[in-house]
Amino acid sequence: MDYFKQIIRFAKPYKGYAYLNIICNIFYALFSALSFVALIPMLDVLFQQDKVREIKEPVYTGLTELGDFYKDYMAFQVQEYAQNDPTKALTLVITLVIILFFLKNIFNYLAMFFITFLRNGVLKDIRNKLYDKTLELPISFFSEKRKGDILARIGTDVLEIQHSFLSVLELIFREPLTIIFTIVMMLLISVKLTLFVFIFIPISGFIISRIGKTLKSHSDKVQTEQGVFLSTIEETLGGLKVIKGFNGETLFGNKFKASTQRFFNYSNTLLNRQNLASPTSEFLGITVISILLWYGGQMVLVDGTLDGSSFIAYMGLAYNILTPAKAISKASYSVKKGNAAAERVLEILNTESPIKDAPNAKVITDFNSNLEINNISFKYENNYVLKNFNLSVPKGKSVALVGQSGSGKSTIANLVTRFYDVNKGEICIDGTPIKEITKHSLRDQMGLVTQDSILFNDSIKNNLLLGKEDASDSEIIDALKVANAWEFVKDLPKGIDTNIGDSGNKLSGGQKQRLSIARAVLKNPPIMILDEATSALDTESEQLVQKALENMMKNRTSIVIAHRLSTIQNSDLIVVLKKGEIAEQGTHQELLSNNSIYKKLVDMQSFDS
To answer: pTM of the predicted model, to two decimals?
Structure first.
């Protein structure tokens, strides 16, 4: 129930539709009950044509006699209209029945019409909230989650909430009201018979509730497994070249088939148990109806305390309870099933991001003096990857970080951009710790070019506009020229409006990287962070990209994380890292003359080339 309360808050913006739905459901339930009661005068006309008698206008004598009053009043009105003509009487009561059933179905449609806006609105808002939360949460959160699992939560789990929890909203008023109005009409016809029915309803409810006890646990397994096979699909599409190149089709095929087999087993158990609800409730309902037929038949045939037309209408009302009762029992299963989906969705929505803006965080609009990294230490899990690291990057200077893989170079880029927070020490811009600066304004001062050129399935123009949303076409072309990318973009079929495919795969590695640089150039930030921007390129592409990087870094503060040392020889300062600590630092020539780690790295690369 706690999950339901948390999900239902998303319905608040659509409460107007909820009220309209409730009003329509009240009328639906009322006309649903009245449509069966209206059968009584029709049955009287059909079965008592040989008992023509004068009926006086009845007098209301109290609530206990309301059923008889209604019946006699209807008979009196029919008599007044028909003047003892059975055909006219039959036409009247049939018209009345048609009108009541028409009104019942009109209000049923309107109730569903209004609830549709609420259901789809909640679905939209939960998905939007989940997507916003996905953007808000730190990168570390998603390093522990499968991408497919996140996709499953935003896609199928939210849909399950709509089918389960939100379908219950339709039932909260309509089905209980239908039952209440029907029971009222049944009481008016026969109190004794209705009390007899109430003995069997709790027994039926108990049996149905026992069936649904384990639905949530089975549903949770189904939805978790769905995340597993979506992850497998995502990994397969992302690594298709490697899978084919290593003849790994069978391995991945077996992995996927094992997941779908588990999904098959869990789904069968869940759906078979869920499908048991409808036939069980229907069988129990028919059992109650059968007992009623026996007991009510005794009242008509033996005791004479109930007339035949009232009993037939009563049986119709009793059967009218079955449909909403069955819907309510199915809804209880849906809630149990929806609990598992809601738990998975709310796990993300309720996760607090550890990387938040401080209550009085500053908004910075420029970079004036320097970026200071003061005695920081950082660990992703147990072991520190950076220890007591200090670095000062003055405005307008270029600082390069080099070292073997795992020495902590890329970690510094993650910390400066505040994708992660340091465990010890602090990072400052112009003397202000970055934890006291809003994340948005901090990242506004920085441009990022990574080793993997991350592009999106869109046009070149729209990929670059991520750097500056309101940039003109001429500004985009200027940025492409600085990045040495205009030379190939101008030859594309649609120029800057050319779609570059999924992850930019219609382009070569060098072309993609130059577009990444152009995006950073268009943003024109005072601080540029280059995380091994040329390491994945061939020699020719590297030279073009290196030229683009040099164009971009003119008169700009830069932190360059480099694998290929030839690209950072002109840096103002080169810092050599080893196991998370500074081993040596200086200019290219100073470090060569030291004849230490940097010299060995340069010699190794010279030998390799």
So the answer is: 0.71
